[in-house]
Amino acid sequence: MKKRTHNLIRPLVRRLHAYVPGEQPKVRGLIKLNTNENPYPPAPEVLAAVRTATDARLRLYPNPTSDLLREKLARLHGCAVENIVVGNGSDDLLALATRAFVEPEGFHGMPHSDGDAKFTVQYFTPSYSLYPVLADIHGAVKRAVPLRPDFSLPTPEELKTSKTWTPRAALTFVTTPNAPSGRGYATAELEALCRAHRGVVVLDEAYVDFARENAMALALRHPHVLVSRTFSKAYSLCFQRVGYMVGHTDLIAALHKVKDSYNVNGLGQVAAVATLGNLPYYRTNFRRVIRTREALTAALAALGFEVFPSQTNFLFVRPPRFSAERWLAALRQRRILVRWFAAAGLREFLRITVGTDAEAEALVRAAKRILAERPPTITSATRTRPR
Ligand SMILES: *Cc1c(COP(=O)(O)O)cnc(C)c1O
Fold this sequence. Notes:
The chain is α/β, with parallel strands linked by helices. It is built from 14 helices and twelve strands.
């Protein structure tokens, strides 16, 4: 079978390692702390708006450029509608940015040279593991620039002496606050970083509502900077797939040119508009998540976990006594799902979503029991899909 289809598929695609999403379990009753979803439901008004819109209008195409949503977002951020593009989740926009700003098929197996810059997608490691996949899909040259050991950003001076970084990369992704570490970055430091770049910089602010600062002003001040936001994590709308980017009108117009005509589904647009009409509800939930995050940080630290300071809705921890992979299996046995990355440099850690207080308490209880017993040994059966 393999023989017959082999030549039908582009070599680049045959070689491709696809992005591995966190598990969405089919069994019910698990405590799901593995994909950073919001533990609180959308506002009742949002659910009502989606229900009301679910009628014979489903036969019609939605607004192709999410105009009503863009108007509301423009008012929220104090910019023009032309500064905003809406995507099928922010993942859609990250892919569109790669398509719009990076020359394809630049990788010819040669070592990096500065001539590669227009083919180059650059990002820090560790950060969102989708970026290298987007680069691979495009055939782009990848530059992975290490963060410092405490996950802080290298300074522009340090970058200049780094062999992996180039100021002229066509596209640079910065996850801020960082995932998977949870570390937040000051806007002043991000601005210094942006000033050091000549190519497009995307500040991926997927978790920014749980942070002290946001860098939206930079997208409106610097023509080469885009800020990416999503309704998924903070606004409890993962299921609906709505994200957006803010930036210079020319960059936004370029993204509009390369997107699918109807990239954002109609019910998603309805839900996002209704969300913006109910921001106080969500701000209350941000405060709750932050309170639970601080309590969980203290409780895990008391059990011997090394917990990195988080400005997101998840914690990045180095568990005590046993390997992170064994902890993953032991928690799973107790019906608690967390995320473990098999990649070098990440395998000693777990990423744990901050859920409700009750979920956090269940996690702490399970951790206490695991520390009191022996955790299971790892077999291929307990190993979840490695990454
Ligand atoms: C979840 C996440 C996204 C994608 O969010 P969607 O809008 O649901 O596509 C983007 N960036 C980071 C860093 C994320 O964690």
